[in-house]
Amino acid sequence: MNAYWYSIQWGSKPRLNKVKASGGCHRFSEEFIERSSIKSGRKYAKAHLIRRYIVTSNNYPDLSSLKHVSAQKVSDHIFEQLKESIILKEILPEEQLPPERELCSIFNASRLTVREAIQRLKEEGLVEQIRGAKGGTFILPLTAKIHEKTKESLINQWDEFQDIFVFRNFIEPYTAKMAALNISEEKIEELNQLNNQISAPCEREEFRSNDVKFHLKISEIANNIYFQNSVRMIRTKINPALDLLPFNEGVRKKTYEEHQFIIESIEKQDKSTAKKVMYDHIFGTTNKLEEIIRE
Fold first, then answer.
1. Which residues does the UniProt record annotate as the domain HTH gntR-type (predicted)?
2. Which structural domain range is residue 271 located in?
3. Cβ-count burial of 18 within 10 angstroms (0-12 exposed, 13-18 middle, 19+ buried)?
């Protein structure tokens, strides 16, 4: 609530002044002030009686939900988008980022800004830059050192990760339910193609990439931007932790079969079953991660 003081200035022409009050005071006051003035080069004293009323209130609304803000550079936004794409396996290890000129066009930013973002990716060990005719910026593969760092982070922030997993256990099953209500033959074909890529022999990174695409595709089929954004945010948060999970032919086969159950229930528009099989699928993943941090 803004507070103002009103004053009546008495002179040859009395007038009412309105001025915003400063400070968080809570008071009602009257003040009498004498002032002198100079007019037309002739000095004389004139008494002005100013009666000032200040009324403020401390009945402010509860604003405890507001948080500090900090200025974020354009390069920070670019860095976060590229990092998210790397974490979600939309860009795989050893793949090359577009040239600086193209990145400038994509982000509508200057070369200096793009270079700042790439430098941050280098500092986090996500990319490397190679000079020469066949050079460029390439995504680095995951290393044992990165896995160890991820595991340490998972242990230290386990409470936060548990909150994310609880959120995931709610969001993704309902996303599958919504997908069952909005499914089409074309979308079923897209899901089958993604799952068939998981069934074929592949490396860990390709497997993880196809798994992310499968879950994001279901959120897209749900036809709700809030579900879609939530699933993307969840995967961005947990994907480094999922990289800690073992990968072998048994894991690949089991994932394919569970995905197939999800596809079949969505295709039948059986929303209850779609919700249940998705819950069972992701709940098992959470249990495996809990076993890892106990080791």
1. 72-142
2. 144-294
3. exposed
- Looking at the structure, do residues 280 and 166 belong to the same domain, yes or no? yes
Assess whether pLDDT exceeds 80 at residue 28: no
Hey, which residues does 53 pair with through a beta bridge? 6
Domain assignment present for residue 230? The answer is yes
Give the H/E segment covering residue 52.
Answer: strand 50-55
Same domain (yes/no): 165, 258: yes
Residues paired with residue 54 on neighbouring β-strands, in sequence order:
5
The predicted-structure confidence for 141-175, as pLDDT tens digits, reads as follows 877 667 777 888 888 888 898 999 999 999 999 99
Cβ(78)–Cβ(113) below 8 Å: yes
Tell whether 148 and 290 lie within a shared domain.
yes
Query: Are residues 148 and 262 located together in one domain of the fold?
Result: yes
Same domain? 86 vs 24: no
What are the C-alpha distances in Å from 177 to residues 97, 180, 227, 272? 36, 5, 11, 7
On whether both 117 and 161 belong to a single domain, the answer is no
Q: How far apart (Å, rounded) are the C-alpha atoms in residues 139 and 94?
A: 5
In whole angstroms, how far apart are CA 19 and each of 22, 31, 206?
A: 9, 15, 67
Which residues on adjacent β-strands are paired with residue 42? Answer: 39
Nearest to 251 by CA among 292, 293, 199, 182: 199
Largest CA distance in the chain: 101
Question: How many structural domains does the chain have?
Answer: 3
CA–CA separation, 126 vs 97, rounded Å? 12
In a domain, 64, yes or no: no
Assess if residue 103 is contained within a domain.
yes
